User: Fold these one by one.
Assistant:
Number 1:
Amino acid sequence: MEKILKGYVFRPYPTEKLKINEMVQNKNLSKKIYDASWYELIRQLEYKSKCKNKKFYQIETYYPSSQICNRCGYQEKKIKDLSIREWECPSCTNNNERDIMLFIQVST
Ligand SMILES: [Zn+2]
């Protein structure tokens, strides 16, 4: 899936299907969401992926990536708060960091 060209590695860029209309109803996040222009970012990623003949895919909106242990697959349903950035798996004691977990799960 990877392609090395002139020293750069090109990989597909998975994204999450976002329900932006629902997300902007959160007053704490709405300004940041509008400022980020997420819709345009996703549109550009899809467009550029097609231009480079790369796979473009989106993860389902409510896929529980932050709850699933990267080592053993155990799902910790208590992890719902965005402020929890990492947790230890009660099944295998693996330390799961939210951003890294998502990257590993959508890249495999
Ligand atoms: Zn685990």
Number 2:
Amino acid sequence: MKMANAVVRGFTRVGNNLFVLQLEPQAQPRFRAGQYIEVAFPRPGENWLNRHYSIASPPNAPLLQLYVSGGDDDVAEVWPKLGEPLWIAGEGLGLLSIDAINPERLPVMVSTGTGIAPFLSMLRSKPPARAVLLHGVRHRADLTFSEELSTLPGLRYIPVTSREPAPDGGISGHVQDALASLGLSPESSELLLCGNPQMIRDIAVRLAQFTLHYDRYW
Ligand SMILES: Cc1cc2nc3c(=O)[nH]c(=O)nc-3n(C[C@H](O)[C@H](O)[C@H](O)COP(=O)(O)OP(=O)(O)OC[C@H]3O[C@@H](n4cnc5c(N)ncnc54)[C@H](O)[C@@H]3O)c2cc1C
């Protein structure tokens, strides 16, 4: 049986059913930037809920940051509140890592929605000398980390909005089309993809000549 081993220390609503959570673990889980972790908590009168979440904070940060959207659940309703306990696994999972990229090539990170989380962990822990990050969302208000990302040296941050015009420096439309419009070459860049499975399938078909690394969220 799972026993609570972490406490919710931060619970900030940043959009419609979209939250940044800070968890304080009893013991630091072992993970590499880019990995996800199993999280579980009790729901009143029901079985524990078990889910996977990418870790947005860098390894060794005292608090574990998650970027959570509910899918079909209301996060504010379902998740433990500030000061309440939950369980997190002791080790991260998954192979998404910037170290998998050929060091001669430009890492190009492509995310939708909460799929930006593993790239935040990578950029916050060991920022590469140069990288591109596309973040695809519907509305500008969902570009939660834009201030932090716009100032990272070496990073070309491209916000992409599909339901309203993009902010300055961004691209309006879908992230797949935005990526294709950059004119990247498979000889000099590699793609890291995270989030919506349809985005990942589209890119795998349209840019089949590129080396791809990815995590699907559902
Ligand atoms: C490897 C991995 C890492 C993940 N990391 C995160 C993360 O960092 N943050 C996060 O919020 N979720 C993440 N997820 C998704 C999360 O684990 C759950 O899938 C989600 O909370 C909904 O779960 P569900 O069982 O209700 O239904 P699911 O069957 O998982 O999803 C039901 C529907 O909800 C929608 N949906 C699910 N997840 C999301 C999402 N994140 N954003 C928008 N729509 C969604 C989709 O339309 C999907 O068809 C991750 C999943 C995997 C497999």
